[in-house]
Design brief:
The chain is an all-beta fold. About 0% of the residues lie in helices and about 50% in strands. β1 and β2 form a beta hairpin.
C-alpha cells in the first residue's frame, strides 16, 4: 500500500529561507486515475537482463552476487533518477544516479542477496526515470532467494556479510573488522579481490589455510578519494584464483569538507508505520536529486556536511515505512552557500 498523504512540514536550511515541504505518495489511483504498472521488466523503452533474479539457496552469513544489465531500447535518451530496493536481504551495488542511457546503450550493475534468517525472501528493484509516459516511468524487477542454515560446498562463511562505512571525509579513512570461518573441512584462500580500490583488505598473508571449524580475522578500510557514494564487492578466492569462496558487500559515502554545512529539519510524518526519512539534494531547482544519507535517518534533522563554497543546493525529503515503501518527494527548500 502506498503511504498516505501527510501533513505539511517546515524545512529550515542554513543560508536559505525557510520553506514548507509536504511528503506525498509517489502514485495513488485516486489522484491519477490509474496505478503505476510494476508487473513487467520490459517496456517499449527499457529491458532488464535477466528479467528477474533467483538467487537460489544461500547459507546464513554468506552473500551471493548477480549481475543485471539494463538497456535503453527506445529512440530517445532515458535518465534513471532513483532506485529503490525492497526486501531487507537484498542490496544494489555499482549504481551512480542520475544515469542517462542513450539509444541502445546498456549499463551493468550488481544485486546482492545476504539472507538474515531461514526461509524464502522476496524483494524487488524499482527505478524511477524521466519518461513522461506514466506507465513506463517506473521499472521493476523481482528478486527471490532462500536462506539456509549451514555452509555450502565451498565451506567458508564471511561475517558480516555486508559492511556499511557511512560517511567518511575524503583524504581520511575508516576501518571495520570481519571474520572468515571454515566448516568441517580446511579451506585455502589464495587472494582477496576488491572491485573498488577505495576499499582495501589487510591483516591477511596470502595464501593462507583455515583449519576445520577455524576462523581468520581481517580488516577492511574505506579511503574515499572523491565526493559521493561508493560500493564494492570483496571476493575471497580459492586456490585457483578464479572462483570466489565468499563475497562481502561494501558501501560508503565520501564527503569533502569545505567549512560550511547545511542544517535541515522537518516535522515528523503522521503516516502509519514511518520508520525514517531519506534526504535528497540537487544542483537544479526541480531536480534531478541524489540521495545524500547513507542510511535511513530516524530523526527529523539532518546536517549536510558536503556542501561546497559558492554552490546553491535544492533539498527534498521522503518518508519510508516499515514495508520499505517510500513516499514521493516533498516540495523543495533552497540553500545558497557563501
Amino acid at each position: 500500500m502506498p503511504l498516505p498523504r501527510v501533513i505539511s512540514q517546515s524545512l529550515l536550511a542554513t543560508f536559505a529561507v525557510s520553506a514548507f515541504i509536504v511528503i506525498a505518495p509517489r502514485a495513488r489511483a485516486a489522484d491519477s486515475g490509474s496505478k503505476l504498472n510494476f508487473s513487467t521488466t520490459r517496456t517499449d523503452r527499457v529491458v532488464f537482463r535477466p528479467a528477474n533474479l533467483a538467487f537460489g539457496k544461500v547459507a546464513l552469513g554468506r552473500v551471493k552476487v548477480e549481475t543485471v544489465t539494463i538497456t535503453n531500447v527506445s529512440d530517445a535518451d532515458i535518465t534513471l533518477l532513483q532506485v529503490a530496493t525492497q526486501g531487507r536481504d537484498f542490496a544494489v551495488n555499482g549504481l551512480d544516479l542520475p544515469l542517462t542511457l542513450s539509444r541502445g546503450q546498456s549499463f551493468t550493475f550488481t544485486c546482492v542477496f545476504a539472507p538474515r534468517s531461514r526461509g524464502e525472501s522476496r524483494g524487488s528493484i524499482s527505478f524511477v526515470s524521466d519518461v513522461s509516459d506514466v506507465s513506463n516511468s517506473m521499472l521493476r524487477s523481482e528478486m527471490t532467494g532462500t536462506g539456509i542454515i549451514g555452509v555450502e560446498d565451498n565451506g567458508v562463511t564471511v561475517d558480516p556479510a555486508a559492511m556499511d562505512f557511512g560517511t567518511v571525509q575524503v583524504g581520511t579513512s575508516a576501518s571495520q573488522g570481519g571474520t572468515l570461518t571454515a566448516s568441517d573441512t580446511q579451506v585455502t584462500i589464495s587472494s582477496a579481490v576488491s572491485s573498488n580500490p577505495e576499499f582495501t583488505v589487510s591483516g591477511l598473508t596470502f595464501p593462507f589455510t583455515i583449519p576445520p571449524w577455524g576462523s581468520q580475522a581481517f580488516t577492511v578500510t574505506f579511503a574515499p578519494t572523491v565526493n559521493g557514494a561508493a560500493s564494492a564487492t570483496l571476493s575471497f578466492m580459492d586456490v585457483s584464483g578464479t572462483n570466489p569462496l565468499a563475497v562481502e558487500s561494501l558501501s560508503g559515502v565520501g564527503t569533502v569538507s569545505q567549512g560550511h554545512s547545511v542544517d535541515l529539519s522537518w516535522k515528523a510524518s503522521t503516516s502509519q508505520n514511518v520508520i525514517g526519512y531519506n534526504i535528497y539534494r540537487g544542483n537544479t531547482s526541480g531536480g534531478p536529486y541524489s540521495k545524500i544519507n547513507s542510511v535511513l535517518d530516524p530523526s527529523t534533522v539532518y546536517t549536510d556536511t558536503s556542501a561546497a563554497d559558492g554552490k546553491t543546493y535544492y533539498y527534498v525529503t521522503t518518508a519510508v515505512n516499515s514495508d520499505n515503501e517510500e513516499s514521493a518527494y516533498s516540495n523543495q527548500a533552497k540553500a545558497t552557500i557563501p
